[in-house]
Amino acid sequence: MNEVKPVRRRSGEGGKHGISEARKNDARTQSQYQPYKDAEWGFVNHWYPALFSEELKEEEVEGITICGIPIVLRRVDGKVYALKDQCIHRGVRLSSKPMCLTKNTISCWYHGFTFNLDDGDLSTIVGNPDDKLIGTTGITSYPVEEVGGMIFVFVREDDYPLEDVPPLSEDLPIRFPESSEEFPHPLWPASPSLLDDNAVCLGMHRTGEANWRIACENGFDNAHILVHKDNSIIHAKDWVLPLGIRPASDDCITTMEEEDKPKGLMQWLFTDRWEPILENKKVDLKVEGLNSRFYRTSVVLPGVLMVENWPEEHVVQLEWYVPITDDTYEYWEVLVKVCNTEEERKAFQYRFDVFYKPLCLEGFNDCDLYAREAMQDFYADGTGWDDEQLVDTDVSPITWRKVASRHNRGIAKPGRGVDGSVKASSIRMRRLAEGKKLGYFVEKIEE
Amino acid sequence: MNEVKPVRRRSGEGGKHGISEARKNDARTQSQYQPYKDAEWGFVNHWYPALFSEELKEEEVEGITICGIPIVLRRVDGKVYALKDQCIHRGVRLSSKPMCLTKNTISCWYHGFTFNLDDGDLSTIVGNPDDKLIGTTGITSYPVEEVGGMIFVFVREDDYPLEDVPPLSEDLPIRFPESSEEFPHPLWPASPSLLDDNAVCLGMHRTGEANWRIACENGFDNAHILVHKDNSIIHAKDWVLPLGIRPASDDCITTMEEEDKPKGLMQWLFTDRWEPILENKKVDLKVEGLNSRFYRTSVVLPGVLMVENWPEEHVVQLEWYVPITDDTYEYWEVLVKVCNTEEERKAFQYRFDVFYKPLCLEGFNDCDLYAREAMQDFYADGTGWDDEQLVDTDVSPITWRKVASRHNRGIAKPGRGVDGSVKASSIRMRRLAEGKKLGYFVEKIEE
Amino acid sequence: MNEVKPVRRRSGEGGKHGISEARKNDARTQSQYQPYKDAEWGFVNHWYPALFSEELKEEEVEGITICGIPIVLRRVDGKVYALKDQCIHRGVRLSSKPMCLTKNTISCWYHGFTFNLDDGDLSTIVGNPDDKLIGTTGITSYPVEEVGGMIFVFVREDDYPLEDVPPLSEDLPIRFPESSEEFPHPLWPASPSLLDDNAVCLGMHRTGEANWRIACENGFDNAHILVHKDNSIIHAKDWVLPLGIRPASDDCITTMEEEDKPKGLMQWLFTDRWEPILENKKVDLKVEGLNSRFYRTSVVLPGVLMVENWPEEHVVQLEWYVPITDDTYEYWEVLVKVCNTEEERKAFQYRFDVFYKPLCLEGFNDCDLYAREAMQDFYADGTGWDDEQLVDTDVSPITWRKVASRHNRGIAKPGRGVDGSVKASSIRMRRLAEGKKLGYFVEKIEE
């Protein structure tokens, strides 16, 4: 006989505060972005920024992690090469103790397995030059493009054909003035592109603790103005922000889905398709003397934000949220300006150092960093995507999720052989005890 | 052909040191407390202490975690409100950056979702006041009671009906003298209750690293005297402890299971139903001049210890082991005394500061803290409940487990959206690298 | 209608860089060492070094973890006893707060459960001497041998019969000159054994973050010379190393599989069965004036390396890679020399302090420590064993894996009740925040 009896209790009728049917992302909507929900480790077979050019000098080697894939970069005679940073033999990362015996190879520091920089083929083994494995195998190579002071890597699956690699421009924001007719911008001049002649990119990147999707959605979210209301830049410029901005029309967003072009969405901000909210009686708030800065946000795969006319005319802010692991991302903030003379370049650099960087890239965007982190616990186990209750201002992330689901080139598999792929590993634990958090760069072995 | 052959080996006949059949908690007994074994994250739909009154001043907001549920508290016009600390929109904790625009609401700092303090209804969205989600959903509200300088919250499941919430007194220890007939105490005066007029509660709370059940069972365990033998309070008072106390009668414990009353157990300590052990020849120990302090321990759901006549006459020690996650608990130690004058209140506070706190709540009880922690590795994966070998002195925890299994109001589901619900998250990892352990309070965002 | 359509993509034909069929460890080979692949937590029912003799003085108690099993050692009247370090009652580790009331027992500090040192029987409970559990149960005892200044423990499963325990010598390297005929060594004198009369063992042990198998395979790996090329010892001695050493004959390795003898393998280094590689044209390297030190490596179960004639004549280096958890191991480095006089002993100690320890055990072997760690991420989730691509120089680990699979005496179950058996436990987390990594020794409770 078992003494335990169930406790009687009245039913709570499901609770009055369950998930509301009035939310924007009902089951039907969610089914349209399942691939996005699956992309915990990112989308692969896309171009991602890896390093600023100045972070990889001639002959230098650097190891990073993107979408859980270990990548090693080396610059030789000015050209940058990228390979999978994992020896085929015993799996160590080549970049943790770089050994380059010739100009066109990188060797594993452990047993001397030597790979061609250009195609990743195993070309020899230092102490075992006649082994029959040589020539039969190798590591994946990644296409590299370097423009405007940034190194981009096409992060592909091992079996993604090189001949299918699209041009970098397909994974970058649309350009102006060539898109000015399709996406007019009467309130500001045509935005520069990092592909423009004499484009200069100034910026920074740092590691954030959140899933890359949460980070990305924050970037073009029109409804989070509140987070920025206390930022110094707002007050220094005497801007007066609305309480919010809500979609006033069904065509408030246009998706970009043409073949061979960037895939994403453009928001018709500062048109009558979006309405600023100036009053909320319930909380007794009223905005007077509205004085917003004009800007426009768009986002394209694999998660590239463009903020036109920001922070100033003739400058554009680009952002990437590069997946490192499933809960860390490398946050890139880059300002682009065309500088046709050395003088212009110097002036841009000066303004970057004294204004843009401290007040915008830090200051203003620091708030986004903690906002993303604040969401992470809710989404970390995957259930957040089902439980969130979105509203009409969330047309932006919902549209993005659908477009990204339709046009991504592949969903990354969980990372392997990189720090953070096995949670709470003893190595990770020891590093934490030493005060070192998980990061984007490979730690080099010190002897 | 597979070369691997099994190694021959004689059978070890099961090992002479398996689990003994002589143990008290055989399979039949264990089956009587399965719900308790399942309650890794605690029992819900119970009253728990949340904060001392002085920890939440007028207009202040504080976030805590109980049973894996995020809870935010705010005090307005003296009254304390408690809501689920998780925005329905993107899941951030409201308390991490409190934003209160009106007296009767709390707004999410991220997108301005605004909830009524009293019922949790979504009453508006700051920058989106006409959204159709408003009025259809909200967050769970938790009943609050404030007595004797302590704030109690009824931690309910989202669908637990408010009309079923029992009075706080059902989740507090029984009271005297009204229980003096049922549970006589000839050796000490009637114990005070925090519900008494002019009851003053002085105490502390801190986070312990162990499951709450392990912590709780330590509180009323009569057999762990050894741990306390070197405590200063014992020697300062010239107490001479027995080696142990063993049950001398079948009725050494009485369960409390009457409807509408606290559910738990009372131990008949310092009666002939329990026998002090004064000698153990095997280890050559003999106690002479026994001089114990009289006290009596009882425990009621959801895990509230009462130690009557401790540390002195007219004072009672209460303890709670409030589940935070499955392996952390908030340890509450509270001394209650009725102080009818300001002078008495000051004297109690003085004695608390110079004697009770350093020698009893710290000193003496610090040993319990490490004892609970020492058990955690054994119980952490759940198998400890099956492998432990209990003896007759363990009648106390066994009885408690059965009573708790019969009368708890619900078993908490694993926590969601709180620090520690996803183990080894990157945010947790970063905080560890910064030297911050997982805790009870939400860390506020610093700008 | 679901808008999401799959992205068209050409097939990558499996990727040109998949796992090569030219690798040495194909599926058939791998099937011959499945037990080894399963031995994540080590092989049990083997002799392991636990402590140096000087680490356990008379009456001292120390707790350690081997193969996930908690073990407590105590020395009484010079003799060392070893028991399972886990009270049968509530699972705490006895060693965390040692309480020894008699010479032949150890008592649990929590509830006084008292166990015989010799057989682990529960002989009494301090405060409950008549409980019927007494005499019916107990904790596992482990056979102990102490030789040459080292304490060895036979780490057995609870049900492994004591009468089946083999002599320590079966789990130690083979001895010379008795093996000199079978394994001739014309280039160096017979190596000493720690079982020799007047053998002196000097060494050190420390915790490494990697699986024990990865650590062990590094020890006798002939192909990792590159890692050591910059070590001071190499340059101080003017040694000139080859680029590599490759097997030149099918009988380059002899397995040792005779009954009642150590099981393992001997490598015929510095014979014509192994060929030094002096040139690699692909990477334009050529060695001139080869001047290697003669040495020979062998390995026996449960993972004991012997390096004969190293670092000098008449000295032998032994190494163990004792599993602590699945991703930590205790790395033992021991030099053995026969010292027949006190003068010889002093000279050995002096040379150890000023030469062997800084240049060999540290210096040289420090490189092995980071090499093992560098492999860990790749092997941590178990897939590394399938994905690694081994070459002909890997005949050594492949042969070892097969021999170990055939002759181990048991595969350890995942650890229980020890630090690190539950990953990311709150206690572990707190310790990390305090800057303490997971280790081999039990941390004693401080009051």
Question: Your description of this structure?
Answer:
Three copies of one chain form a homotrimer. The first copy, chain A, is an alpha+beta fold. The first copy, chain A, has two domains: 46-145 and 417-433, N-terminal domain of TfIIb; 174-407, Naphthalene 1,2-dioxygenase Alpha Subunit, Chain A, domain 1 (Alpha-Beta Complex). Chain A has eight helices and 21 strands. In chain A, the strands form six sheets. Chain A has a seven-stranded antiparallel beta sheet with strand order 11-21-20-19-18-14-13. A four-stranded antiparallel beta sheet of chain A has the order 2-3-4-8, with no helix packed on it. In chain A, a hairpin with a 4-residue loop joins strand 16 and strand 17. In chain A, helix 3 crosses helix 5. The longest helix of chain A has 38 residues, at 342-379. Chains A and C meet through strand 7, helix 7 and helix 8 of A and helix 4, strand 12, strand 16, helix 6 and helix 9 of C. Chains A, B, C: Residues 10-27 have a biased composition (Basic and acidic residues). Chains A, B, C: It comes from Emcibacter nanhaiensis. Chains A, B, C: GO terms for molecular function: 2 iron, 2 sulfur cluster binding; metal ion binding; oxidoreductase activity. Chains A, B, C: Residues 47-153 form the Rieske domain.
From the structure above, extract its key features.
homotrimer; 447 residues; alpha+beta; N-terminal domain of TfIIb; Naphthalene 1,2-dioxygenase Alpha Subunit, Chain A, domain 1; seven-stranded antiparallel beta sheet; globular; 2 iron, 2 sulfur cluster binding (chains A, B, C); metal-binding (chains A, B, C)
